[in-house]
């Protein structure tokens, strides 16, 4: 048995059938790489689409339950006996001053002159 430290011995050649088998397997793997990557892409795409459809179905179910709850609330409000309506509060009438009179104009001008000026801080 040759020792690994002895460099004087020649390296034996490998059988040609073995090299051909390794070359063919490498060629096959290299040729299958695009198909493998596309299949992985299709699987990922189909999984994400399935998840999207599951989310949309779940959202539709939630919206349906909310709409049923609001329908039940509205039907309950419709079927309740009518209560006596309270009288609406009356607002005081709006008085519009006559702007053609000079007294009103003078009064308004004095009020504007007395208004506090804005002070900058």
Break the fold down into its secondary structure elements and pairings.
Layout: H1 16-79, H2 102-114
Give a quick set of tags describing it:
mainly alpha; 2 helices; 121 residues; rod-shaped
Short description:
The protein is built from two helices and no strands. The protein is mostly helical.
The poorly predicted ranges are none
The coarse silhouette is rod-shaped
Cα-based radius of gyration, to the nearest Å: 46 Å
Major beta sheet, specifics? none
SS summary, helix count: 2
Distance between the termini: 100 Å
Helix content: 55-70%
What share of residues are in beta strands?
under 5%
SSE arrangement, N to C: HH
Question: How many beta strands in the DSSP annotation?
Answer: 0
Please provide a written account of the structure.
This protein is an all-alpha fold and 121 residues long. Helices cover 64% and strands 0% of the residues. The protein is built from 2 helices and no strands. The protein has helices at residues 16-79, 102-114. It is rod-shaped, with a radius of gyration of 46 Å. It starts with 15 loop residues before the first helix and ends in a 7-residue tail after the last helix. The mean pLDDT is 78.
